[in-house]
Amino acid sequence: MKNLRPLGFLTLLILAFAFIQCSDDDVKLTTPVKIRLTDAPAQYDKVNIDIQQIQFHSSNNENEENGWKEMNLINPGVYDLLQFNNGIDTLLVDQELPSGNVSQMRLILGENNTVVIDGVSYDLDTPSAQTSGLKFQIHDDFLAGIEYKLWIDFDAARSIVETGNGNYKLKPVIRTFNEATTGAISGIISPAEALPVIHAVMGTDTISTIAEENGNFLIKGLNAGTYKLAIEPVDGYLEKEVEDITVSIENITDTGTIDIETVAN
């Protein structure tokens, strides 16, 4: 009868490595994902949007129905878009999601969508948003262990269409941006009473905002490049352009105070 020899150190090392490799194959890589809601200002009292679901379409979702996976929305319900502009936003999603390529996201709305104009509330007709959802292209990667931050940016002013007879329809104009691949422009309008619409223009791309009551403004989600600011104040003030504003990734370009002249009497 042979005596069994104890396993050598090298043999044990090989077996341990093989066990770790097998265990790694079973590990599902995940990415911490944060999705925030922001808005370009509009001349309404309120724009109330009923957000019920956010879903994403990933290369890893073959087992999900039609490839779509629902995210854990922190607070489903009504959001007044006009509360989230000039750098203010609100967190919609904060969770670990499977790593991999993400092609699309979609926003599914409920029925409680309204616009308030001069103190009067009007229902917003949103049939397509309530059924199939509002789709927007992402085409980005959820990298394992690296936090992914995404903003959903409504353009409230362009998203509401008056259809006549006091009726309004929501035809959402939405863009998305990732902080790691975009920059921003900030500044102060003087006098603040000019309350201008401010357009950041580069080529055929235009992103807009409205200065706050104190004159401050912030335009986020801008691709790197050289921009022109086209400033359109309220009646009584002259329009103004500011050229050659350089935007770089992950930086805010501060234009300082921009003086607006009054119309000569």
Automatic annotation (TrEMBL):
One Pfam entry name: DUF4382
Keywords of the record: Signal
InterPro entries with a match to the protein in the record: Carb-bd-like_fold (IPR013784), DUF4382 (IPR025491)
Domain DUF4382 span(s) in chain numbering: 30-172
Signal sequence residues: 1-22
Protein name: DUF4382 domain-containing protein
UniProt source species: Aduncisulcus paluster
Organismal lineage: Eukaryota, Metamonada, Carpediemonas-like organisms, Aduncisulcus
